[in-house]
Amino acid sequence: MSAGPAGAGDSGISRHEATRGEVYDAGMAVRRAVLGDSHVDRANAAKDEFTGEFQDLITQYAWGTIWTRPGLDRRMRSAITITAMIAHGHHEELAMHVRAGLRNGLSREELKEILLQSAVYCGVPAANTAFKIAQQVFRDLDADSRSSL
After folding, report:
1. Residue 17 has what pLDDT?
2. Based on the domain organization, do 65 and 110 belong to the same domain?
3. Which of 122, 99, 123 is nearest to 111 (CA)?
4. Is the pLDDT of residue 46 over 80?
5. Which domain covers residue 125, as residue numbers?
6. What does the alpha-carbon distance between residue 110 and residue 80 come to, in Å, rounded to a whole number?
7. Are 93 and 113 in the same domain?
8. What is the distance between the alpha carbons of residues 97 and 44, in angstroms, rounded to a whole number?
9. 86 and 120 in contact (C-beta within 8 Å)?
10. Residue 110 and residue 57: Cα distance in Å, rounded?
């Protein structure tokens, strides 16, 4: 795989040579790095006969095929994903990806700028909701860090 920005395409598997299992495994590694083990463990524990294939699809294609591509680092992918969540009103996913953006190295200031930018292109009401969601994520993270002291 060609070299790209840090955090991009770092699975070490050539796209043309990877087996489906290798793509899935690379996707699971990225999914865990971006969303955190506890989130992925909860998602996997909730899998059943009805949802299992969907979770596998997410891991293989979203995380194993797209998030492992060279060319964009994880910070940029997070910024794009956050904007898409705002544009489509996916509030639960937005909260998860705000946390992921922080894990991927976006600062709170950069997240604020992403939300301000989204007000112009996604609409002020969508951005207003996004600010409220991000604000709650920050409160939760701050409370968690205070309680772990």
Report:
1. 72
2. no
3. 99
4. yes
5. 74-147
6. 12
7. yes
8. 18
9. no
10. 30
Maximum CA extent, the chain: 47
Give the helix ranges, DSSP H, for the chain. Answer: 20-35, 37-45, 52-57, 74-88, 91-103, 108-122, 124-147
pLDDT, position 42: 95
Average pLDDT, the chain: 91
Stated pTM of the model: 0.84
Question: How far is it, in rounded angstroms, from Cα 109 to Cα 117?
Answer: 12
pLDDT digits (tens, 9 = 90+) for 47-100: 999 999 999 999 999 999 999 999 999 999 999 999 999 999 999 999 999 999
Is residue 71 classed as helix, strand or coil in its secondary structure? coil
How many domains does the chain divide into? Answer: 2
